[in-house]
Specification:
single chain; 158 residues; alpha+beta; 3-stranded antiparallel beta sheet; rod-shaped
Amino acid sequence: MKLFSPSCCGFFDTSIVDLAIPDDAREVTPEHYDALFAAQAQGFDIVADAAGNPVARQRASAPFSVLAERHLETTRKTRDTILNRLAGIGFAALANGDSASVEAISAARLRLLDITTCAGVLAADDLDALRLAIADEYARIAATLPEEAQRAFTENLQ
């Protein structure tokens, strides 16, 4: 038999010998037990309701500011990889006397440094809008570059 303790917010199995079961533990039917764990697998939390019975509750998501900072940190890492790749391509263009490519790459690198603070990113008010703003900015920057330099984006933005 399965028991739920609201004070521990946990389940106990009476078939386990010498198990210290809290006094507030109450029986949970096998069907309810299975339903709770199926809900947990879908992202719900198992909590005690006001009466002390186990219920599934939608897990609270992190605030947008927390989610945004995580995504921006990933964006910075990707940006740094692209910046390094563009530096190599820019040096090769400089060695070959390709001043147009050098200028385009230099300008793109400056824009990349500001990708996490561009207008679209700052205006984003949810994670989907933030992702879209960053993707759009990457696309705008890449479009200003010669084909060889655009590969720095396509290779790193999968």
